[in-house]
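User: Can you help me understand a structure? I only have the sequence.
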Amino acid sequence: MSIYSKIPDKIIRKLAKARGIKKLNGREISDIINAIIQEGHLNDLNHLVKEFAFTKNSCGLVIERPLTPFSDLVNTPEKFIKSLLESELIPHNFRQLMNWQTEFDDSIRICGIYQEGNSVFINTVKKKYHKVKNGWNNTTVSSYADFIPVAIHFENFLLEYRTTTTYLADVKEFILDLLFYEGDVKFDILTKVTSADANKIKVLLQAKYSSEEIALPATVGSFKLTSSRGAHDLENDALAIKFRDFLHENSLPSDDRMVVTCHLEEFEDRVTGVKFPVTFDINIKTGSIKFSSIVTQGVIDHVVDAIITVCFLEKLADRKLLEAGEAIS
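Assistant: Let's start by predicting it. Here is the structure, written out as tokens:
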């Protein structure tokens, strides 16, 4: 398997176009990769390998911060990696591998690790099963390797699970064991945002709402508005405001949002200059985020920075301001 296989075809084609490589229509991806290398842009490809090394298709995102700090045994990237080596959970040549194939079963295993500054990125793998129809009435059960990437940020004790809440429990337990947590651990969930928080995140990212689903205490259940991606921001769209006013006038909640979809028309990779759109859901009810397609590390960093600013730094500053005011009074 090529080390470039995790880079989506459309991103490779965009890179080739940005580097002036001609006659891309109909060419095999392997030929385009060879052309990029021959034109002297191997570093760009290697950069993209790292950008996609710890992401996955339809990547979810749940960010939690334990209310108690990490154990002194593993409270730095170096101590944490040393612990993994001593427990034989990662190979000694992991720095040369970044990701590797391992035997996988019903328990979670580590199949990739990378340190960048005060953060450690981990790929976990576990055997999953799905049924496939076989013949007239038969079904065949087959297994596959299911990956969940995790980022651990030691500077501010943040745990970044790149999955949805549906598949969170197992990998969360695995990571907490690695960090020597025991018993009932309390968390702040940074992705558990309010409607106002979600709007602040959207503004900070210079994105737009392309859809929103509003909960209704009636037989309808919910009310969903959608628009063409990038064309309108439903938060400020005149027609969307009229719909919300109608709900309010009929004594129905107009701001009890369940899910909002943020659309960023153009995100630019900082190294290659490749540009592409980004769309993700903020699930206000479950406290998770889900990207509509595979994204780069840079995209996740961009979104996470906005979440940390709105849901951690700003609230911490407000708390300190309130405490200072109470002390004066």
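Now, to help you interpret it: The radius of gyration is 22 Å. Residues 297-328 form the longest helix (32 residues). Let me know which part you'd like to focus on.
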